[in-house]
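In this notebook, the sequence line spells out the residues, with the fold written below as integer tokens. This is how one looks.
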Amino acid sequence: MLHNIWDVALYKPLINSLAFLVSVIPGADIGIAIIILTILVKLVLSPLSHKSIVSQAEMKKLEPQLAEIKNSGKSKEEQAKMTMQLYKDNKVNPFSGCLLVLVQIPIIFALYYVFFKGLSFDSSLLYSFIKQPENINMQFLGLIDIGGKSIVLALLAGASQYFQAHFMPKATIKSPAFSEKMSFQESLAKSMQLQMKYVFPVVITFIAYSISGAVALYWITSNIFSIGQQLYAEKQSKTKDLQKAV
């Protein structure tokens, strides 16, 4: 049942879209088709991802007030009530970012799976109105064979992942005094930030090189699009803050 839903709702529409793009792109450059398809999917998901980024940025702005509540000395129950009231007053849903990301995951994974499974375009997967590409040019821009391993694209995938994590809104974690210790939440948050920024790009580089240049090109395009979204959301947030200050 789940497999049928996966094929009908996600995998087949994406593989058919890629086949169509390869058929109409001059030179049948599948690398360009991958870039276009990735951008189109990211554009469809952009309202959700934009809201997620904005939600993270709004949560970051509330950090000083949240710290005051934490250090107020009140009971855990009172702190919880004050925290929820703070979110309500500022119209911030602390769970919206996570929910929006979860909605996107199946679609992003399906797009990744299209490039991971291969680019042979089995006729049994194509719709009747989609013509099977006669020629498939695996030489991206005539320079890189994306059907095989590409260390250049893998390194670019890792680098783009690093910058994507670098520009992502992060919780501010203050260094504790010598006599103090980080709370479990602060320690976990710091560990996750370090892994996202330094470990995950290495993992992405290794996976991208192990599979194919097509997967690496997908990651590069997706990360660059996400970086652009984050910078745009940050600019919008600063503009709104300036307007409020006037």
